[in-house]
Structures are given as C-alpha cells and as structure tokens.
C-alpha cells in the first residue's frame, strides 16, 4: 500500500511538471511573437498598421456634374439637378452609448410621417422597415419612392426630426422645358456601376441620342473621391485628416437655338398637330446670314422631362430623313433660270398639260388656265411652266446648278446621322420631274441651306447648331463654331430677283401663297404639295395624302429669318386646304419671332378701308364713276338700266379697296360677267340679286363657268360654276 501511494504521488508530480513546461513554452512563444510584431509591425507578411488603417479608412465617390446644354443666351435646356435618396438606419447598435438615437426607434410613427411625403402608404413603409429588421440589416432604402427627392421634400422630412432617417445626395439629369427641340437635344441613360478601383457604386451617365449622345465625351466629367478614417459604424473620427480628389465637371454646350423662337415654334406646331392630326410635321427656323439654326422641331416628338412619346420618335427627321420636296424645289429652278439668263417672266406657255419624253406633265388644274406668262406660272405653281423652263435652261446646266445649291450632298451640320438625299437623273424624265420637286429627294436641312443663298444675296451658309463649348472648371471656351460660307451658287442680283418674284406668290391674285401674307412684313417664298411615295411603288393620292410645305423668308428686301415647314398627310376634311396648316405655323412663328428680334415692321402697302355710300336712286353712270373714285369694283346687274334700285353691301358697311360692290338696276336684262376667281360668297350674292338659280359645284373659288361672259340670262339658262380650293382666291374681302 505504501509503495503504491509513493508511485501515485510521483506520477502526479511529473504530470504537473509536464503541464507547467507546456504552458511555459506557449507563453515564451507568445512573448517572442509579440516582441517580433512590436519590432517589425507586421505579421505573416502583412503590415498590421496598414491593415488596421485600411479597415477604418473609408472612400466615397464625388460625382462629377454633367455639362449643361443651353441656348445661345444661356437659358438652360438640360442640366444636372441635385436630388436626394432617402434611407433609414435600423440597427440599434449604432446608437449604443450615444446621447442621441441614430436609428429608427418608433417604426409606426416613422411610417405614418414619411407616407405624407413619398408615394408609399404607412403599411408599405412599415413592411419595408420591419422586414429589414428581421433580416438584421444595417439600413434600408425605400425603393423608387425614396429616390430623386427634391430639396423641398427633403427639408420637410428633416423638419419632422425622425431618428434614423438620412439622405444621400444624387445628381439627376433635368430638362426644364418638356417638349423643346427634343429630337435635337436628346436624352441620357443613368445607371449605377461598381468602380473597379474603389469597388464602390458610382453614377454613370451616357447620352442615348441627340446632342447628349454626339457630345457625350465633352459633357461627361471625371468623378473625384473622398477618403477619411472612421469608427466601426463608418462615422468620421475626430481630428483625422481627409483626402479629397475633386471631381472635374463636364463641359457646357451652348446651342444656336433661341429659347423664345423655339417656344414659338413648339406652341404653334402643337396647336396645328391638335387641329389637323397629321402623320408628321417638320420645321426649321434659321438665320440666313450666318446659318445658325434658331429653332427646329418635329411631330411626333417626345417630352424631355417625362419621356412620354419617346417610343414613337427616336430619329431626327430634319437631318436623318429625306423627302420629295414638291413645289418648294421650283425656287431653285427659278433661280437657275434667272442666273443663266433663261428667265423671261412675260413670255408665255400653254398651261394644263405638257408632253415630254413619252410622259405627260400635268398642272394641279389639268385643264389649265390657258396660255399664261411664266411669272403667272410661278404664282400658280405650274408644273408645266417648270418643264418648259427646264427646256430653256438645259438638263445638264440645271442639274449642275442644283449641286451648287448643295443638293445630293450632306450639309455637314454638326449633328449625327445626316443623310444626303439623291438627285435623280437616271432617265431624262427624272430631270423634268426634279424641276418641280418630284423624284429627287432632299432633307429639310438641305432646303434651309439652299434657301440661305436666296435670302443672303447669293452666299450659301452652312447650317450649324453648336455655338460654343465652355469648360466650367476654367471658364475658357474650348470650341467656338463660326459661320461658314459653303459657296455662292447665284449672284446677289439673281437672289434679289428671286425674292421679288416669289413675293408675288403671296401678293398676286393668282398666288398659291396668299395665306402666308403678313400685315407687318413682306413675305417671300414658295408653297409645295408633294406626292408621297408608297412602299410598294407609285404615289399616294388624295387631299389628305400629300406633303404640304412652305419655304420662305421675311422681310423680303433683307431677310432676317428663313423658315421651312412641312406637314404630312393632315386631316383637312372639306373645310381646309393644304396651305392652312403650313401657313398657321409659318405666320405665327415668323411674325412673333421678327418682333421678338426687334425687326421693325415694314410700311407694307395695304388696301384701305372704304365706307360704302348709298347708291340707290343714282344713275348707273354716276354710281360707276363714284365707285371708281373710291377704288371699288362695280358689278352691274341689268346693264341696260339707267338707275340703281338695289345694292350690296349696303350703305355704312366697311369694305376694302378693290372689293366687289353689286349694283342692280331697273332693267331685268342680266348679262353674265366673268366669274373666274370669284369667291363662293360673291357668287351667292350675285345669284340672289339676279333672281336666277345657278348650279354650284365645289368650294373655294370659281375656276370655270358653263356659259361664257356676256351671255344674257333667261328662264331657260343653265349656268354651272365650278369652284376649287386649290385655285387662287381674291384678296378683296368685305369687312363687317
């Protein structure tokens, strides 16, 4: 027994010594490890100080502001706007040992208050917070409803003093004007991407169309970053240094657009769009002396602010789509004839139809207006007149001339995707149809460039939309665009004569552009009615199936503005004609723009008001002489009579100089006048006073009458009058 006890005690002692030795060795190793770490500052090849610093060093991206897009006067068209993203800190740990709560304490109250300011119900907000709490998350956002909050909303939420509710600054692309040269300005795509260097998410903005895309590199800035030391929760530690690499903002682009003129154009086009519901519309306003585009728009288009309508309007029709220009092309046929000495305005041709190269060229009035002068042919927009004029010019000379006007080649405008159009001359007949605007194609911007030569005394100016590019970081202009003369296809004398000739299309009784007349400025220009090619070949036909257009300028003597407007397939019905929608845009925009630019109204010669006297009981000869002195046109019913027994308009009414004044005599013998050009109102007045019934076909103005002038009416007389909207109307109007 004694021996066993001794062995046990001895064994226990050795076990204790062994344990003591092991712990001693571990302590020695730990001591050596600590000593080495203190001496070297590293462990396992890692710098411990750097690791700790890295763990507590935080980085934040500093977003660069995308460059602004402005009009020529500095009015904002597109800019980055500061908005805010709201988030809630929900972990109680962040508020531990602190005097204030930095996390959401009262979920129900927070949900109830926030629902007043964002588009979520209290129940939806509560569900978002509670779900995040159960997932043991640090913070939570409120989806789309909590983003892009304006500063006004942020301030209201902050005033509620809700614990745990915080905001992060965001930059959002903002377009304050809505529909405003939308297809020119373009839009951006905004997304969050992870930075390869910092692994942080940063805002990435890239242009998707228009100026935003073409000049994306110039508009895009360079992001900066902020580095600082923080505690476990990411809070900035006191007395610690910050390192800031500032962001470099994108460059600002000034367009040649003028906000006021652009607004005039947008408003007018929207009204016409609503009234006539056309398939599409295109319009450009430019300064012919410089080539600056002051306004441009199209329909369909979209709202820059809401992007409504974007799915139907991606391309810029004004530069990226060609059209057959129709009769507006006659402007350049006329200019070519004048420049080459082939224009004789008083020479005549047979209107209606013209056979050439086994094809028949037809006027809008296929029966024609008889043998008329070339000047009247321009005024009436005669295709046959242009075909005859081409014969005088010569096909090669004509096509070469169109090339000098820039047709068939790109203008070089500072926009993407421009197309060139095509001068069609595969067959001889193609050149003939080109003379009046069918077959060959052009872009609206080419029409503006070519017409600048007419308006600018022969010097053709290249169109452009970028005025300058400025670096906001330095204030320096990095790019300045200047007016560029593309050529001089005609002389100043020719340009002046073209303007004077085209002005008669507005002022002449035969002119197709009478609706474009201005009370304050002399307008010069050319209407167009173009057939539209069908996909399967051939052309669409019908009143509502044409492309109606006008290319013109004002004031005629020294044009300050040139404008092109085209309306495709408007719903005209019975009441309106093709020049109605185009003139409504042109007249409104041109008149308001010239006055906005402080262009003094001209002293345009106008018909004076005349107060109608009492001619009843006067002798026919006396009444006729008095009317001549008052510059009124007497229409006598009963040429064999001696005394006036009835008149219209009646005594005291106000009419314009040159107006018809109907006088019925005491004779029952009625001899027909020439009704050509008479309005429907005048025809009905004559019918009423004569006591005879006529057959009246169509609307607008008389083009033909079945009985010749001088025919004496009797009970068996059958008079048929044909009226058409497309023919010239009288400018003589009766005022009430």
What this model shows, in words?
- The chain is an alpha+beta fold.
- It has 3 domains: 58-252, Alpha-Beta Complex (Penicillin-binding protein 2a (Domain 2)); 259-596, DD-peptidase/beta-lactamase superfamily (Beta-lactamase, 3-Layer(aba) Sandwich); 609-735, Trypsin Inhibitor V, Chain A.
- The chain is 31% helix and 23% strand.
- The chain contains 20 helices and 34 strands.
- Strands 4, 5, 6, 7, 12, 20 and 21 form a 7-stranded mixed β-sheet that branches. A 5-stranded antiparallel β-sheet has the order 14-13-25-24-23, with helices on both faces. Strands 3-10-11 form a 3-stranded antiparallel β-sheet.
- The radius of gyration is 41 Å and the shape is elongated.
- The N and C termini lie far apart (148 Å).
- The relative contact order is 0.08.
Into how many domains do the coordinates divide?
A: 3
- How is the biggest beta sheet arranged? 7 strands, mixed
Low-confidence stretches: 47-57, 726-736
Number of helical stretches of at least 4 residues: 20
The outline comes out as elongated
- Under the CATH scheme, which architecture of the largest domain would be assigned? 3-Layer(aba) Sandwich
Q: How far is it from the N-terminal to the C-terminal residue, by CA?
A: 148 Å
What is the averaged pLDDT score? Answer: 86
Rg of Cα set: 41 Å
State the helicity in percent bands.
25-40%
Q: Please state roughly what percent of the residues sit in beta strands, choosing from under 5%, 5-15%, 15-25%, 25-35%, 35-45% or over 45%.
A: 15-25%
């Amino acid at each position: 027994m004694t021996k066993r006890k001794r062995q046990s005690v001895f064994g226990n002692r050795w076990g204790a010594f062994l344990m003591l030795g092991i712990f001693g060795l571990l302590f020695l190793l730990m001591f050596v490890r600590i000593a080495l770490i203190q001496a070297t500052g590293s462990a396992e090849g890692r710098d411990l100080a750097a690791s700790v610093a890295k763990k507590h060093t935080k980085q934040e991206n500093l977003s660069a502001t995308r460059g602004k897009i402005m009009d020529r006067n500095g009015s904002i068209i597109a800019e980055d706007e500061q908005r805010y993203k709201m988030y809630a800190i929900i972990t109680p740990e962040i508020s531990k040992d602190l005097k204030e709560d930095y996390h959401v304490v009262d979920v129900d109250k927070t949900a109830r208050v926030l629902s007043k300011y964002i588009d979520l119900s209290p129940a939806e907000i509560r569900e978002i917070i509670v779900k995040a709490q159960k997932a043991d998350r640090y913070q939570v956002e409120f989806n789309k409803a909590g983003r892009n909050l304006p500063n006004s909303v942020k301030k209201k939420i902050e005033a509620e003093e809700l614990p745990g509710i915080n905001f992060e600054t965001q930059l959002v692309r903002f377009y304050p004007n809505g529909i405003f040269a939308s297809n020119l300005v373009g839009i951006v795509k905004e997304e969050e991407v992870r930075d390869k260097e910092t692994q942080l998410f940063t805002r990435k903005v890239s242009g998707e169309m228009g100026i935003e895309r073409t000049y994306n590199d110039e508009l895009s800035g360079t992001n900066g970053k902020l580095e600082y030391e923080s505690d476990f929760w990411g809070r900035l530690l006191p007395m610690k240094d910050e390192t800031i690499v500032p962001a470099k903002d994108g460059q600002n682009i000034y367009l040649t657009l003028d906000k006021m003129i652009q607004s005039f154009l947008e408003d007018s086009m929207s009204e016409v769009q609503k009234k006539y519901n056309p398939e599409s519309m295109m319009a450009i306003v430019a300064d012919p002396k410089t080539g600056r585009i002051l306004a441009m728009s199209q329909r369909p288009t979209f709202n820059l602010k809401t992007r409504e309508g974007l799915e139907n309007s991606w391309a810029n029709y004004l530069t990226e789509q060609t059209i057959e220009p129709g009769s507006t092309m006659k402007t350049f046929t006329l200019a070519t004839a004048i420049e080459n000495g082939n224009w004789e305005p008083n020479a005549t041709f047979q209107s209606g139809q013209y056979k050439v190269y086994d094809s028949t060229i037809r006027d809008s009035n296929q029966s024609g207006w008889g043998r008329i002068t070339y000047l009247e042919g321009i005024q009436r927009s005669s295709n046959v007149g242009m075909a005859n004029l081409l014969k005088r010019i010569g096909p090669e000379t004509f096509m070469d001339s169109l090339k000098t006007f820039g047709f068939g080649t790109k203008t070089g405008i500072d926009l993407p995707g421009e197309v060139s159009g095509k001068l069609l001359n595969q067959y001889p007949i193609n050149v003939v149809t080109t003379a009046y605007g069918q077959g060959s194609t052009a872009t609206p911007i080419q029409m503006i460039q070519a017409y600048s030569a007419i308006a600018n005394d022969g010097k053709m100016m290249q169109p452009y939309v970028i005025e300058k590019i400025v670096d906001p970081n330095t204030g320096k202009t990095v790019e300045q665009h200047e007016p560029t003369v593309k050529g001089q296809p005609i002389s100043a004398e020719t340009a002046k004569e073209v303007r004077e000739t085209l002005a008669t299309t507005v002022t002449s009784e035969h002119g197709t552009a009478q609706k474009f007349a201005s009370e304050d400025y002399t307008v010069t220009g050319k209407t167009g009615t173009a057939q539209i090619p069908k996909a399967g070949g051939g052309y669409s036909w019908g009143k509502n199936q044409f492309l109606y257009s006008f290319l013109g300028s004002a004031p005629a003597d020294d044009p300050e503005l040139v404008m092109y407007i085209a309306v495709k397939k408007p719903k005209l019905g019975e009441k309106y004609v093709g020049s109605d929608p185009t003139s409504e845009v042109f007249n409104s925009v041109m008149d308001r723009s010239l006055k906005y630019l402080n262009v003094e109204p001209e002293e345009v010669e106008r018909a004076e008001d005349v107060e109608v006297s009492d001619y009843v009981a006067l002798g026919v000869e006396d009444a006729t002489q008095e009317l001549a002195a008052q510059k009124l046109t007497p229409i006598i019913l009963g040429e064999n009579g001696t005394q006036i027994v009835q008149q219209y308009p009646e005594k005291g009414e106000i009419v314009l100089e040159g107006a018809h004044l109907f006088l019925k005599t005491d004779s029952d013998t009625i001899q027909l006048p020439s009704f050509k050009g008479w309005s429907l109102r005048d025809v009905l007045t004559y019918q009423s006073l004569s006591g005879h019934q006529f057959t009246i076909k169509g609307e607008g103005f008389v083009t033909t009458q079945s009985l010749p002038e001088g025919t004496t009416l009797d009970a068996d007389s059958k008079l048929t009058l044909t009226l058409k909207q497309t023919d010239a109307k009288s400018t003589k109007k009766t005022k009430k």
